[in-house]
Specification:
By secondary structure, the protein is α/β, with parallel strands linked by helices. Helix content is about 30%, strand content about 20%. It has an eight-stranded mixed beta sheet with strand order 7-8-9-6-10-11-12-13, covered by helices on one side. The longest helix is centred in the N-terminal third of the chain and has 14 residues.
Length: about 325
């Protein structure tokens, strides 16, 4: 595991909190910071030394997107299981090669789609599964931000494989959609470059069409000053609207740890709005509070897959469907 922002915020705290894992070592090429948070942890200078450590069974690959394929191949070839950040790879062909390699080596691949365990998304999933909305016809998942300045992390602004907003936020939104509705029958994608001097896309809109008349739209835009609801669903019986309200990332950045009081609990006022028609045709509204969420559930799924051979919920077919959309021209 590299110990930048991702390692410090999204992986280290959960590996430390889960009783089934021992956070043994990280790779830090320049500054050595991990020991401040985890005294006694080993800090290797390079990935080759990390991979040579016989005590390590699971490698977290949380490096820049364009390095995922090479590092994953090295780790699998060394006989390690991998938990790899999104996007898994730049292309579906690379992904298929790695899945086949892992099968031949007897190792497991876990793609880190943590947004399945966001409180706002789980609320949306619960509403869909309740069938209160009836037959769905139109669904919108979106991720709005306002970041007109180019990212200080240069690799995110370079025109290299798996770059741009569609490979940054697209894997989150597409995974959420595909995890519920499956692979679409067809799709149409629009990309845009709107920030001054950008070399990569900073806007995307993807229409996923399903044979039963369901239309799902996933959008992301880095130039939205008035953020729109993240989830909008319309069905034959009513509608559900939900803001993006998960607080885990914000809490982790503040140093709040998994398991501490209030971790993963949305603030009041962020409830989802469910609007239905009663038997008289009148509108009836209900505000629904989300249950607290924690990414520790993802790490428990990894643990259960490794120890008890339980199927990991982010399936190979879903990852490949996502990448086929992302790589399409």
């Amino acid at each position: 595991m590299a110990y930048g922002m991702s390692g410090k915020v999204f992986h280290g705290p959960f590996l430390q909190a889960h009783p089934g894992f021992n956070l043994h070592a990280v790779t830090e090429r320049h500054q050595k910071n991990a020991d401040k948070d985890y005294p006694g942890i080993i800090s290797y200078d390079d990935i080759d030394t990390l991979l040579a450590d016989p005590e390590i069974e699971l490698i977290v690959i949380n490096t820049p997107n364009f390095t995922h394929y090479d590092y994953a191949k090295q780790a699998i070839s060394a006989g390690k299981h991998i938990l790899i950040e999104k996007p898994f790879t730049a292309t579906s062909a690379e992904a298929k090669e790695l899945f086949e390699l892992a099968e031949s080596m007897g190792t497991k691949i876990f793609v880190y789609q943590n947004r399945r365990w966001d409180s706002d998304f789980t609320a949306v999933k619960n509403i869909i599964e309740s069938e209160k909305l009836g037959k769905l016809s139109e669904v919108h998942f979106r991720y709005d931000r306002y970041k007109i300045e180019l990212n200080v992390k240069a690799f995110k602004e370079e025109n290299v494989p798996a770059s741009g907003l569609q490979y940054d936020l697209g894997p989150h939104l597409l995974d959420q959609a595909i995890s519920i509705f499956g692979k679409p029958d067809s799709f149409h994608k629009i990309l845009g470059r709107n920030r001054p001097n950008t070399l990569v896309d900073d806007f995307f809109s993807i229409h996923l069409a399903y044979g039963d008349g369901l239309n799902v739209f996933v959008h992301a835009n880095l130039l939205v000053t008035d953020v729109q609801p993240a989830f909008v669903l319309h069905g034959t019986n009513g509608s559900f609207i939900k803001e993006r309200a998960d607080v885990q990332e914000e809490q982790l950045l503040m140093g709040i740890k998994p398991g501490e009081p209030g971790f993963g609990a949305e603030a009041r006022g962020k409830e989802g709005k469910l609007t239905l028609r009663d038997h008289t045709g009148e509108k009836v509204q209900e505000f629904i509070q989300s249950d607290p969420s924690s990414y520790i559930a993802l790490f428990d799924e990894v643990y259960q897959a490794l120890v008890n051979d339980k199927p990991y919920p982010v399936k190979e077919t879903e990852v490949l469907a996502q990448l086929e959309i992302l790589e399409a021209q």
